[in-house]
Amino acid sequence: MEFVPCCQYRGDGKVTKTSDKHRWNMLQLAIRNNTLFRADDYDMKERAGIDKQYTYFTIEYFIMGADLLADIDNPEMPIHRHWKYREELIRENKFVIMSHGGIDMPKVISKSLLLRKYHDVTRFHLVDKGIAMEVGSKYIRDEIGMGRYLRYLMRDEVYDYIMKHRVYSKE
Questions:
Q1: Matching Pfam families, A to Z (predicted)?
Q2: 3-state secondary structure of 43
Q3: pTM of the full predicted structure?
């Protein structure tokens, strides 16, 4: 499995709160000694700073939370924040969508003309039983930022790195 973290300054105008350097270092620690995992800095290096860090250019298979599924074709989102190449992205890739935040994934798909257009038995694999993504990256950032102890949610090396570099400190 390949991990391709997005650049800190994304094409949709969002900026991650954690620097590319820290996110890259934490990823390296998280997958260290696992030969099944590989990290690729394509978005962070190759496309950084050119405002073209579109998901479409970097994936073939996408694992994401249901919150991102709801954002792909969200009509309430301003046009300049829409996912670039979203139709091509959906048409040409497969998705594993993890339950998150109580979002009704089949309802999200059924309400979107675009998602419905490409929905078949192979396009979207909805994981809503047994595994939940209620503990996501935002939860971890917020909890550590408030000084809570979350070592048990990640490898020790990653937790130690976060604490040493005060990655999510609110100061």
A1: CTP_transf_like
A2: helix
A3: 0.54
